[in-house]
Design a protein that fits this description.
The chain has helices at 23-30, 65-70, 77-89, 121-138, 148-155, 161-164, 183-187, 192-216, and strands at residues 56-60, 97-100, 107-110, 113-116, 142-146, 168-169, 176-180. Strand 6 and strand 7 (176-180) form a beta hairpin. Helix 3 (77-89) packs across helix 8 (192-216). The longest helix is centred in the C-terminal third of the chain and has 25 residues, at 192-216. It is globular and about 40 Å long. It is an alpha/beta fold and 224 residues long. The structure holds iron/sulfur cluster. Iron/sulfur cluster is lined by residues 13, 30, 33-36, 38-39, 45, 102-104, 126-127, 130. Residues 13, 30, 33-36, 38-39, 45, 102-104, 126-127, 130 line the site of iron/sulfur cluster (SF4).
């Protein structure tokens, strides 16, 4: 499992990781993480969710407004779109693990609204020990990175979704890895035809990820 370079001055979640692994231990320990400044303005830590036997781990960027309030990943508008896409791809949502590269909501104020603010590289790296721990605990067959932040958290800033989208890669993180868009990108498309095509392309990427698992090991159950 690749680790970020040792840095004594940069923020990191590493001191907050529990001595004993396990998703429950990790999730509980993450509740009191102070590894970077993002906890200060967020309501709570939003840890990953799903079975520890999941063969597919999906990684987004960070929790949104609704996730921050609910304490659960992918329960807002992008999460509902992800649910639809997984269903269309024949992937049972309750049998995959969903998480984010960054576990606290970073936002800017616009009147009464809290709008997403992109996490800095230092914040993404600070939070990566949690992601490393989730992946090494679950040991999935495939990691699916939803968007550039997730992909670059694991593969570095030279990784470009525009070039690598939809390719099944072999990495140190999991036997298979595929990067695609974040479903929130579909929410920003205003043209209906483009949005429909974008959704179809997203579903096609998820199907490709499921098919790659089936080829390497028939462990991902599909709905009848
Ligand atoms: S964003 Fe990550 S590293 Fe920063 S405080 Fe939250 S859990 Fe810890």
């Amino acid at each position: 499992m690749p680790k970020e370079k040792k840095t004594d001055n940069l923020p990191t979640a590493r001191p907050f990781l529990p001595a004993r692994p396990g998703l429950q231990n990790l999730s509980e320990a993450a509740e009191s993480c102070r590894g970077c400044d993002l906890f200060e303005r967020a309501t709570q830590t939003v840890f990953g969710e799903g079975p520890d036997s999941a063969v597919m781990v999906l990684i987004g960027e960070q929790p949104g407004d609704q996730e921050d309030q609910n304490g659960r990943p992918f329960v807002g508008p992008a999460g509902r779109l992800l649910d639809r896409a997984l269903a269309e791809a024949g992937i049972p949502r309750d049998q995959v693990y969903v998480t984010n590269a960054v576990k606290h909501f970073k936002w800017v104020s616009r009147g009464k609204r809290r709008l997403h603010d992109k996490p800095r590289r230092s914040e993404i790296l600070a939070c990566r020990p949690w992601l490393e721990a989730e992946i090494s605990t679950i040991r999935p067959q495939i990691v699916v990175c939803l968007g550039a932040t997730a992909a670059q958290s694991l593969l570095g800033t030279s990784f470009k979704i525009t070039h690598e989208r939809g390719k099944v890669l072999k990495t140190e993180w999991a036997p298979l890895l595929l990067a695609t868009i974040h479903p929130s990108a579909l929410l920003r498309i205003t043209d209906e035809n483009e949005r429909r095509q974008g959704f179809a392309d997203f579903v096609a990427d998820l199907k490709k990820a499921a098919a790659a698992i089936t080829r390497s090991s028939p462990a991902l159950p599909h709905r009848a």
